[in-house]
Structure formats: C-alpha cells, structure tokens
C-alpha cells in the first residue's frame, strides 16, 4: 500500500515544479512564450495533469486527499502567476502596437489622388463657357427623339439618306406615323427651343448624339456635339463669321486663322464648313450656315421678321485638333495612362 512517504513518481516532481516554474513564468518575454510555459506547467501533458491521473494509485484515503489538496494549491498558485504575467505582457504588447501605429498629427495629411473630368467633358465645358460669355443660354434635350424634330422640323426631306436605318438607330417605341430614334445630332433642340421661346434666341445645346457608324480612326457610334443657334432681327452671314472666328481664337489661341468653304446642309442656306489653320495645316472644324426659312416656318416664326445662324461642333473633333490626337478611339479608351495626360 502506498503512503504519503511512498508516493508515485508524478507526485514527487510537483515540488520541483512548484520551485522552478514561477521563475520561468516571470522570465517569459512574450505572450506566445508564456503560452508554451503554461502548456508545460498546467496543461494536459504537464506534471500537474500527471499527478492528478496518479491519485488513484494511492490506496490511503487520507494520503490521497492530502495529495489532491497539494496538487490544487500548486496548480492555483501557478495559474495565478500565469494570469498576472499574461496581463503584463499583453498590456506591454498593446502599448508597443499603439506606439508603432501612432500618427503624428503635425505631419501633412496624405491626400487621395486627384481625379479630373474626361477630356471630352473638359472640351464641352470650355466650348459652352465661351458661348455663355458671348451671351448665349445653355439648353439640353432628349436623346430619344422623334423623327419630326430630328429630321422634318429641320427641313431634311423624307428621301434624305440620313433617315435610312443604315445611318440612324431607330427605337421600338415609335409608330408608323411617327418613328422614335436616337438623335443623330443635337440640332433637334433648334426646333424645340424656338417652339417654346420667342425671338431673340441665343442658345447652345451640348449633348450626346448617335449614328450607325462603324468604329474607326475618325468615327464612333456615340459622340458629343454642341449645337449653336442665334435668331434675331437683321442677323447676317457676317455675324456668323465673326462669332465663329472669335470662338476659334478663344479656343485655339488669338493667332488662329479661319476660312469658310461653301457646303450644303438642309437646315441652313447658305451653308459652310469652317476650317482653321492650326498645327501647321488647315483642318475642318464645324458646319454652319444661315437658318433656312423653312425651319422658321416649322416652328411658327415669321421668316420675313427674323434671320439667324446655326452651327454644330463635335467635341471629339475639337479635342483631337487641339491636342494632335489622330485616332478618336483614344478618347473612348478607359486606359488611365491616356486619360491622365489631359488632366
């Protein structure tokens, strides 16, 4: 029969554990190191656990009880030491982490990278600002337009090629009497605006337009246009030339030269293309002309009382000419390396 003086070997190792473990606990430098010591001190494979498992081999009940109390006292004392050391180490590690993450509020802040408007939007805004400075009003209209306003009101005949589905994107919302389409230019606002306003009229209309064009170096099926319209008493072709020449000088520079070449548009008569001498060559910029009296009749104006001029300028075209871009697809590319060049 075993007695308190003849104990199992695990019991005899408890004294050594109680003597040396507190020192090892106190020397632990990190929480991770302390957890390793805890596993060896009070864990499932520790002398404490082995001693508890060997209690059953002590036959004397009094001795077994005494040893059980001793095991618990040693375990509780070591657990208390472990908990105290853990609190100290955890607090120190937290302080070190906070110190490492500390922000010096006296340093300049880190600003996010600055964004900018797309080059097309920049160009449209600048063109509109020029004409607003000349006294024009800004108007916008629907992108889904009726055949009447897109073609008929602008004196474009029913046989004109631009009315064909090969050129124009028709929608399923129209009727046999009135087709609905994606507008092919912003010119429909000429008629809409004049229907709602008595002369004088000075208006610019920025916006998107749509045509059934294949994508190539100079064409996109979706593009941006600024339409201009001036209607008043005694407006002449000289007023048109002076206004657009001034616009070109404001946009490209004061030394810009322009010339007007006769052209044909159904909604203006006479009509012209304006070319500008820039980047060492003459380049076509826009179409323009005196408003056709037939357009005035469509909107209820008296052609004998007013005259006017209209023009349409493509934002992509103006941006390409100014910046020497030779492929319009660059303006539709989402490559940030391209867009960042035009902040």
Portion in helices: 40-55%
Number of helices: 12
Order of helices and strands: HHHHHEEHEHEEHEEEHEHHH
Mean pLDDT score, rounded? 88
The CATH topology of the largest domain is: BirA Bifunctional Protein, domain 2
Largest sheet: 7 strands, mixed
β-strand percent reads 15-25%
Coarse shape: rod-shaped
CATH architecture of the largest domain: 2-Layer Sandwich
Number of strands: 9
Secondary-structure content class: alpha+beta
Rg, Cα atoms, Å: 43 Å
Strand order of the largest sheet: 1-4-5-9-8-7-6
Could you provide a short overview of the structure?
This protein folds into 2 domains: 9-100; 119-342, 2-Layer Sandwich (BirA Bifunctional Protein, domain 2), CATH 3.30.930.10.
Structure description:
- With 343 residues, the chain is an alpha+beta fold.
- The protein contains 12 helices and 9 strands.
- The chain folds into 2 domains: 9-100; 119-342, Bira Bifunctional Protein, Domain 2 (BirA Bifunctional Protein, domain 2, 2-Layer Sandwich), CATH 3.30.930.
- Helices cover 43% and strands 20% of the residues.
- β7 and β8 form a beta hairpin.
- α2 packs antiparallel against α4, α5 packs across α10 (315-323) and α7 packs across α9 (293-299).
- The protein is rod-shaped.
Question: What are the SSEs and their pairings?
Answer:
Elements: H1 9-27, H2 31-42, H3 47-53, H4 61-100, H5 119-133, E1 137-138, E2 144-146, H6 147-150, E3 180-182, H7 188-196, E4 201-210, E5 222-232, H8 237-252, E6 257-265, E7 268-278, E8 281-291, H9 293-299, E9 307-314, H10 315-323, H11 329-332, H12 336-339
Parallel strand pairs: 1-4
Antiparallel strand pairs: 2-3, 4-5, 5-9, 6-7, 7-8, 8-9
């Amino acid at each position: 029969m075993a007695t308190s003086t003849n104990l199992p070997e695990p019991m005899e190792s408890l004294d050594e554990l109680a003597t040396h473990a507190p020192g090892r606990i106190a020397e632990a430098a990190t929480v991770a190191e302390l957890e390793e010591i805890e596993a060896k001190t009070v864990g499932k494979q520790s002398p404490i656990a082995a001693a508890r498992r060997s209690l059953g081999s002590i036959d004397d009940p009094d001795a077994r009880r005494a040893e059980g109390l001793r095991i618990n006292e040693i375990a509780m004392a070591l657990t208390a030491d472990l908990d105290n050391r853990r609190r100290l180490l955890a607090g120190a590690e937290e302080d070190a982490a906070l110190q490492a993450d500390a922000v010096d509020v006296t340093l300049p802040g880190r600003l996010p990278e600055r964004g900018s408007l797309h080059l097309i939007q920049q160009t449209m805004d600048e063109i509109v600002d020029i004409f607003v400075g000349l006294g024009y009003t800004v108007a916008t209209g629907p992108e889904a337009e009726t055949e009447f306003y897109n073609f008929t009101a602008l004196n474009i005949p029913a046989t004109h090629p631009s009315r064909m589905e090969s050129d124009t994107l028709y929608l399923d919302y129209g009727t046999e009497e009135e087709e609905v389409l994606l507008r092919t230019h912003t010119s429909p606002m000429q008629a809409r605006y004049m229907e709602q306003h008595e002369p004088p009229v000075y208006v610019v209309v920025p916006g998107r337009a749509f045509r059934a064009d294949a994508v190539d170096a100079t064409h996109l099926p979706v593009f941006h246009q600024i339409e201009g319209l001036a209607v008043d008493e005694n407006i002449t072709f000289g007023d048109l030339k002076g206004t657009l020449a001034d616009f070109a000088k404001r946009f490209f520079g004061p030394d810009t030269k322009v010339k007007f070449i006769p052209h044909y548009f159904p909604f203006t008569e006479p009509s012209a293309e304006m070319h500008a001498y820039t980047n060492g060559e003459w380049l076509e910029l826009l179409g323009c002309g005196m408003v056709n009296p037939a357009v005035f009749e469509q909107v209820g104006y008296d052609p004998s009382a007013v005259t006017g001029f209209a023009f349409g300028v493509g934002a992509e075209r103006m941006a390409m000419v100014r910046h020497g871009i030779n492929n319009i697809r660059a303006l539709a590319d989402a490559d940030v390396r391209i867009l960042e060049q035009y902040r």
